[in-house]
Amino acid sequence: MESQEIRERFLKFFQDRGHKIVSSSSLIPADPSVLLTTAGMQQFKPYFTGEKDPIKDFGAKNTVSIQKSFRTSDIDEVGDDSHLTFFEMLGNFSFGGYFKEEAIKYAHEFIAKEMGLAIDYVSVFDPSMDSGQEGFGRVVPADTESEEIWKSLGITNIKKFGRKDNFWGPTGIEGPCGPTTEIYVNGVEIWNIVFNEYYCKTRTDADLTRNNAEIKSELIPLKVSGVDTGMGLERLAVAVQRKKNIFETDLFEPIISQLPNDFEEKKKRIITDHIRGAVFLIADGVRPSNKESGYVLRRLMRRVMVYGQKVDLRSLILVIVDLYGGFYKELDKSLILEVFDKENSQFSRALTRGMKELEKLSTVDAHSAFKLYESYGLPYEVIKDKSPNLSREDFDAEFQKHQEISRAGAEKKFGGHGITEGDLTASNAAEMEIKTRLHTATHLLNAALHKVLGDKVEQRGSDITAERTRFDFVFDRKLTPEEISKVEDLVNEAIKKDYPVIIQKMPLEEAKKSGALFFYQGNYPEEVKVYSINSFSRELCGGPHVKSTGEIGRFRIVKEESSSTGIRRIRAVVE
């Protein structure tokens, strides 16, 4: 069974059982607390917490998706039989539609009947198997219900584990959580089924001072229990296609077979994984840089460029687009090749010199490794091949030290007079004045988009510099010139009327109920500020803002474009 058939069968299986098929969200997450999308549940988080209504948005309480996912924690492990950066996560979700019995029965039927696989064993949560309760402030009982459901299906090999293995929601990470049950095939975990019964709320430093410092997170029962499952397509393909490892499946074999036979297996796997991951990151709007997700992409690309000097990497990209493009329509080969060629051109000039310098060194410590990275762009992974004792922690510490020095230099350059007001930071008062005008203009833009395009619009992030504002929002198509003009006119009309900007402080829940717009995945305090501009705009914000809209000047949209799948981006200026 080829991987595309597995995808189709999975989606149809749950669609036939009342689930709405939801497209994968972008690898660039709407949630500002995470760097990249790491799991299928991320786009559904507000439905588990009750902030959004699945019936209104999907027409059902149950959904199914195949989510593009990326985890940076495994980069150093890539090259063995199982670790990846980019992967596809099959998942079914329920927001109060069904719970343990249906979830387990669906999983059993899909694995045993639809895929024809034998389940070795399953695992369930039992806190008695480890200390498992520290930091929660609540004793979570053993999941005997799941155990009995599995037994009723004829599964008697049931293992019990504590919080580390069978409870989703580690201390310190805020969000929906609960006990899990896992399915193992051929000794490998295939499917993780999470029963979201609680909301894990992290506690502030003040909370820890006032109360028991051991209780770092509080488990609050959710009003409606939910189901969140995740099954890696790559692992499932290994079992279904009866392969020894993921790289032998049809998800990788067409790529890896293009590499020279004399390459060692580990190098082939690294190139295959990294170039595949880079293709998907580029397609979702990530660009190579020295910070955040751009830094992750650059690490992948440059490691591939070092290892693949004798390989036609452009042809590999075309193989990947051909292999995955039928399911992921956003894979634009022209765009991907353009970004790849530009980075390759910049890097290749320094690569030869850097490799020569690396060969001169008998040993490489963290300081010299960072110098090679800084001077020639050599990735940590390539340098580590020369010096196995070099650790990622030491290298990152050197990187952090460099950033601190750079920040200190910037402060010196501006005479130590950097300004921070509310949500904005500027190097001087003049820059803060411009950013403040743009900030209020962004509120007007958000309101105008809702008026023109309707409630489908949903903020997905913004960025303000002294030159422009950038606003990302959920919308499923390109805006027409007429719509752009109408949004622009509405904002300028509000500016012309010189509305006062009114600030009110109120409890968070009261603010949300008042109809104020807010970034639904934002991390707000219990008491918030609501900025109102007549009846035109009402939004939660940390400020600062102009006193009245007339101070903004003329607003102009300079560009409307796609940011990633289902996300549009507007760039605008004030004059």
Search tags:
single chain; 575 residues; alpha+beta; BirA Bifunctional Protein, domain 2; nine-stranded mixed beta sheet; four-stranded antiparallel beta sheet; 18 strands; globular
How would you characterize this protein structure?
The protein is α+β, with helices and mostly antiparallel strands and 575 residues long. The chain folds into four domains: 3-246, BirA Bifunctional Protein, domain 2, CATH 3.30.930; 252-353; 361-413, no CATH class; 429-574, 2-Layer Sandwich (Threonyl-tRNA Synthetase, Chain A, domain 2), CATH 3.30.980.10. Helices cover 40% and strands 22% of the residues. It has 19 helices and 18 strands. Strands 1, 2, 3, 4, 5, 6, 7, 8 and 9 form a nine-stranded mixed sheet that branches. β10 and β11 (424-426) form a beta hairpin. α12 (313-324) crosses α13.
Distance between the termini: 59 Å
The percent of residues in helical segments reads 40-55%
Q: How would the global form be characterised?
A: globular
Counted up, domains total: 4
Number of helices: 19
CATH superfamily membership of the largest domain = Bira Bifunctional Protein, Domain 2
Structural class: alpha+beta
Mean pLDDT: 87
Main β sheet profile: 9 strands, mixed
Rg, nearest Å: 26 Å
CATH fold-level name of the largest domain: BirA Bifunctional Protein, domain 2
Layout of SSEs?
Elements lengths: L2 H13 L4 E2 L23 H5 L4 H5 L3 E9 L15 E10 L4 H15 L6 E5 L18 H9 L5 E4 L1 H4 E2 L6 E11 L2 E15 L2 H6 L6 E16 H8 L12 H4 L8 H19 L8 H16 L5 H12 L8 H28 L5 H11 L3 H7 L5 H22 L5 E3 L2 E3 L2 H25 L4 E7 L4 E6 L6 H16 L4 E7 H6 L13 E7 L3 E4 L14 E10 L2 E8 L1
Parallel strand pairs: 1-2, 4-5
Antiparallel strand pairs: 2-3, 3-9, 4-7, 6-7, 7-8, 8-9, 10-11, 12-13, 13-18, 14-15, 15-16, 17-18
